[in-house]
């Protein structure tokens, strides 16, 4: 459906935001993971045709969208990280306004989408009175107005409370069954249970593109648990990569990333997805060194 071919985006003479990313994407939810500055937002803006690649191609159904942006815009929904609402409009009026902009003339479609995001009971309230999570759900509703084949959402759960984050994740997971959903985040727990694939970015580069199960399998044998006394912990921190430490009286329970057993008494542990990604990062750093 969507082909990203060796895409580069530079700003000025010496700033490379995206450096040669290639991906082939179909239906499903793709988690685009990386720290702030990894290039996630720039890549998503190029997919949404808000900016053009410096080189390379983004091809949707055989068409280079930099040359013909209208080809994808008709079939794409976009929710930016900073999604604002018009303070004087109700949620219903807000949706009616965006429907007019997108050429959607079916009032039933608006009602259907407000029900989908669980805002139908507050449709006549001013959108400016909504919580952060409610505004994000309204943003998803407007992104879905044209029944797009591709949905691009940038850091959609940042700042939401746990209940809103769970509701939002479940909504995106449902949409991913028959659409391509690209969701950027730096919070691994937001996508570990719903993503069909994960694309890991750092410094503008694509480090990995795998299923969550494959990433977990690769990390087995690289994550260890141990219980040590506090004095030993202070020494260990200088020699091993500690993923998690929890003090328990005079002892410290540790989770450690290491390519083999780091010391006697450490036992192999089943990694979480976040631990798998950290173990991969540390391994790459040691190889580079």
Automatic annotation (TrEMBL):
It holds the Pfam family ABC_tran. The keyword Cell membrane applies. Residues 2-228 form the ABC transporter domain. CDD domains: ABC_drug_resistance_like. Keywords: ATP-binding, Cell membrane, Membrane, Nucleotide-binding, Transport. GO terms for molecular function: ATP binding; ATP hydrolysis activity. Gene3D superfamilies: P-loop containing nucleotide triphosphate hydrolases. InterPro entries: AAA+_ATPase (IPR003593), ABC_transporter-like_ATP-bd (IPR003439), ABC_transporter-like_CS (IPR017871), P-loop_NTPase (IPR027417). Belongs to the ABC transporter superfamily. This is ABC transporter ATP-binding protein.
